[in-house]
Amino acid sequence: MQQQELKEGANIGVNAGEKGMVQVFSIPKSMKENFRYTFCPGCDHGIAIRLVAEVIDELGIREDIISSTSVGCSVFLYDFLVVDCVEAPHGRALASATGVKRARPDKVVFTYSGDGDFASIGLAESMHTALRGEKVTSFCINNTTYGMTGGQLGPTTMMGQVTTTSPTGRNREYFGYPIKVAEHIALCDGTAYSARVALDSVPHINEAKKAIKKAFQVQLDGLGFGFVEILSSCPTNWHMTPEEAHERVRNEMIKVFPLGVFKDVSA
Fold it and tell me: Which of 44, 91, 184, 238 gets the highest tally of CB atoms within 10 A of its CB?
């Protein structure tokens, strides 16, 4: 691949000599072509949303899918995806998704949340959805902070990490320990699939896509609750460049939150 350029707004092609440009990359059909980008530069939400869109296309479920998103970084999901979307209060995405799935069991229902949304204010909804084995799929973006509201300490903030509400770093005596979300969800009897992935490198992004597809597949197969925790950077609130933030994911976060599949009833 000697040359790349942007074609027709979002499509990327490579120089094929006399044959002209050959398209090798394009926006998934489940993503809007003229979306309003609402995330900070270097944020990994864009990668995660694209992976979800790619999987929706590959599974051919776009016409049958409904998403439930709540307040937080995920609140603008409807600006990016060409799917029906229900807006929920902060932390209540899975409560909303449960109602949608029970009312329309023929639909594919998923939630997309941040770690504060999923594992703090919404922890009860998240755990009980998994315990009931609701046939929905859920994605949790773990960036160890409340990214949308100012970088406060969240449920996954790591020990010693400085935030706007822990200026001397997280300590056990005052804040307790960070929650290992994927492991807790895996312990729920109704969970069919629970995994943790990261977006810091191309190999990890490829593995993340496989996990996202599997989480949808267990719903399609009627096996139970599907869950993926996605380790993501937050350059703005971490006060880092995107490159430094990805190094932090790779060198610090993965040590605290190991990658892998913690439960797969179909295996």
Answer: 44
What element of type H or E holds 52?
helix 45-59
Give the domain ranges of the chain: 1-27, 31-264
Q: How does pLDDT run across 4-38, given as a tens digit for each residue?
A: 333 334 555 555 555 677 777 788 999 988 877 88
Rounded to two decimals, the pTM is 0.91
d(CA 194, CA 196): 7
**Contact assessment for residue 70 and residue 120, using Cβ atoms and an 8 Å cutoff:** no
Six token digits for residue 142: 């773990």
pLDDT tier for residue 176 given thresholds of 50, 70 and 90: very high
Give strand pairing partners of 264: 193
The pair of three-digit structure tokens given for residue 96, joined into one six-digit string? 């909303």
3-state secondary structure of 54: helix
Which of left, alpha, beta for 37 (phi over 0: left; psi -120 to 50: alpha)?
beta
**CA 186 – CA 74 distance, rounded (Å):** 23
